[in-house]
From TrEMBL:
Domain of life according to the entry: Bacteria
CDD domains named in the record: PYR_PYL_RCAR_like
Protein name from the UniProt record: Polyketide cyclase/dehydrase/lipid transport protein
Signal sequence region: none
């Protein structure tokens, strides 16, 4: 199983970053520039990427106590895909977001890693204090 692990510093309060991330329907705003749209129905979410690709995800959990969101990717591109996003406070106005994606087949890393890196840049840009 392949893993993509990113630890992203964000110049914003952890509570503010979590407030944006904890709503799974808000994902297109948080990752604007990479995602253009998100639609929710119960625990299923469809996200549209800038290139028009639509991916179905299932939101597994939103954990306010640990500021952690877990989701899986459904569909034919993966045998398995599970990811978590967790916010950790570093200081009153700075936090880190740890994003971990585990998936099979391993070869999908060629697709997942660049999308994750683009998502990290978008997240920092869209959530940083102004």
């Amino acid at each position: 199983m392949a893993t993509v692990y990113r630890d992203i510093p964000v110049e914003a309060a952890a509570q503010d970053v979590w407030a944006a991330l904890r709503d799974p329907a808000n994902v297109a705003h948080v990752f604007a520039g990479v995602l253009t749209e998100a639609r929710m129905e119960n625990d299923l979410r469809w996200v549209t990427f800038a290139d028009g690709t639509v991916i179905e995800e299932r939101v597994i959990g939103v954990d306010d106590a640990h500021m952690r969101l877990a989701y899986t990717v459904s569909g034919g591109r993966f045998e398995h895909h599970h990811a978590t996003l967790q916010v950790m406070q570093d200081s009153p106005q700075r936090c880190r977001l740890v994003w971990i994606s585990d998936f099979k087949p391993d070869e999908r890393i060629q697709m997942v890693e660049p999308l994750t890196d683009a998502g990290c840049a978008a997240l920092k840009r869209n959530l940083a204090r102004r």
